[in-house]
Amino acid sequence: MELKDKVMEDIKAAMRNKEKEKLTALRDVKAAILLKETEKGDKKITEEEETKLIQKLVKQRKESADVYKQQDRDDLADKELFEASVIEKYLPEQISDDKLEEIIKNIINETGAESMKDMGKVMGIANKKLSGRAEGKIIANKVKSLLS
Questions:
Q1: Residue 66 in contact with residue 73, Cβ under 8 Å?
Q2: CATH 3.30.365.10: does it fit domain 97-147?
């Protein structure tokens, strides 16, 4: 089932169950997908583009929640975090920390990286290999710790 169809089914279910907060998050996902599709013309968006889109939506919600927490607006922060958790369900399964470290060590060995100077090389390959399965910030932190 396509992401767009899956989201539509979940919107219908949320409407039936009168889940307003969940419905808001799902409508945001639907809107983002439709926007991306109209941006491309008649072409359908690829699975990789869908994943990047969902990651972007989750990241926006988490960043907003951080800002709200800094301003002591826990009510708004909780709303953003809830929406992020709803949207995250459309991402591929996230990779475990141990598996992430193992993959990055293999990439470091393959590239022959020895210091922080080689971080860009490692990050380029790691981001491609782990796209959608780990957040960029987490990948970067792991690469830094292994190279230093």
A1: no
A2: no
Could you list the beta-strand ranges (E) of 1-148: none
User: Helices (H), strands (E): how many in the chain?
Assistant: 7, 0
Task: Tell me the three state secondary structure of residue 87.
Answer: helix
46-92 pLDDT, tens digit per residue, is 888 888 889 899 999 999 999 999 999 999 999 999 999 999 898 87
At 13-59, the pLDDT tens digits run 999 999 999 999 999 999 998 888 888 776 788 888 888 889 899 99
For the chain, give every domain's residue range: 3-88, 97-147
**Is 69 within 8 Å of 62 (Cβ atoms)?**
no
What's domain 3-88's architecture? Orthogonal Bundle (1.10)
* CB-based contact 148:106 (threshold 8 Å): no
CA–CA separation, 50 and 95 (whole Å): 18
